[in-house]
């Protein structure tokens, strides 16, 4: 579905000067500074996959998406989306792709939602009959009926996001880029967005690339993640592989010996054991040696793993 | 996109109604001023007071009707980054924006329609001397106005802040279209400049055809077509360069 090889994008902008007349010097300068947003990126994504495309702010996620939609031309590298080169087959590629940006909307602010949907229908040449079927389906799935005729500026964020999702899939693109689709939404609205993504992916075999900072989205939706930082892929694989660490047993004891079965006391006076196999047996044997005051079990989670990677 | 432009014109009807009011006021004021300037003189620079008033009224009416919202829209969409969506469409950007403007003008005309009789009355305008010629020169002039607005808007892809440029452009284009002072009154070099610039085709030329000041439209129409062709090329060229410049705000 998507093949990216050696993708590099370098932005070139005039050097900015500070100090008196800085703005003027910036305007006339011939000096440029270069910033590599995406650096030798390679990955492949198969049809029907839901990929978590993650990375800290400024890692190059949006740049990649802009290249994949054909808006930016890369400095070097090859990209193929559904057999097309996005920036040279721009128009054909556009029909294959739906985009949602949580932070901005493609809906016309001052017009009723339905007008924006009609516009999408006409820009993508959706025949009237198919438009109606598609719209009916989306109305049910996203509960659009209550606000279809309301100007977008009066919609709540959750409603607006549902409108944006509808606009992005109205022409049934085989590929969907979602950039922080749950940003700022309440728990229920987030749930609705996730359900919609699952349903779209299941029903139409739609490939989804999901960029988000809410790792609960990723855990709920994606089997595989691609993690990038400073424009480079730093992890590409199953979530299970990334969080492939043993669960841990955290114990507080009545007494505070230096070490218990080879595990040293930590700064908070707790003992942390890796769990391998028989957990009840492990607890029992510790309890037999030292009276236990409290215990808890820590699951390895994506958030702590990713935090670890970002701060590295 | 045409539909969106049309609906937006209706959505911003408050704006348009204010526009109507200011149009009537402007025509009325111009009438007062020029009447007193003329005093008892029968004609100046070959124009009688009646012809002058008819001309100014028409020029203003046209200028209000052909106002372009598109540059404001493009400016806004570039600044907020929503231009991303326009660029991600399978339809060309300029085509979308031109369609938007046409729809917007149609919507504006619909709202402007009720005041047209009032304006015509205030400006004491009678039937056109050359109806078909007027429509042709006006429509072509409108195409030029839209092309120019698009061209100016594209500067936004290089400079993020273009508010001042738009203001300047509006001022210059209105002035050289002859909506304040007829081009016939422009002294030597200013007149020559106005002759060269394309703005006269959005104001002066169609109005002059209407009142019969210009009787043979073949000359102006040829020049208009040449402008349209030239601007078309310029737009295509600028756009292909702008495409390479695309930097979308944020994200």
TrEMBL record, chain A:
It is found in: Cell membrane. Its main location: membrane. One of its GO terms (biological process) is response to antibiotic. Residues 2-255 form the ABC transporter domain. GO terms for cellular component: plasma membrane. Keywords: Antibiotic resistance, ATP-binding, Nucleotide-binding, Transport. The keyword Transport applies. SUPFAM superfamilies: P-loop containing nucleoside triphosphate hydrolases. InterPro entries: AAA+_ATPase, ABC_transporter-like_ATP-bd, ABC_transporter_ATP-binding, P-loop_NTPase. SMART domains: AAA (SM00382). Gene3D superfamilies: P-loop containing nucleotide triphosphate hydrolases. It is a peripheral membrane protein. One of its GO terms (molecular function) is ATP binding. PANTHER family: ABC TRANSPORTER ATP-BINDING PROTEIN (PTHR42711), ABC-TRANSPORT PROTEIN, ATP-BINDING COMPONENT (PTHR42711:SF1). This is ABC-2 type transport system ATP-binding protein. The lineage of its organism: Bacteria, Bacillati, Actinomycetota, Actinomycetes, Streptosporangiales.
From TrEMBL, chain B:
The chain crosses the membrane at residues 12-32, 52-70, 105-127, 133-159, 171-197, 217-239. Pfam families: ABC2_membrane_6. Keywords: Membrane, Transmembrane, Transmembrane helix. The keyword Iron-sulfur does not apply. InterPro entries: ABC-2_transporter-like. The keyword Transmembrane applies. This is ABC-2 type transport system permease protein. It comes from Nonomuraea pusilla.
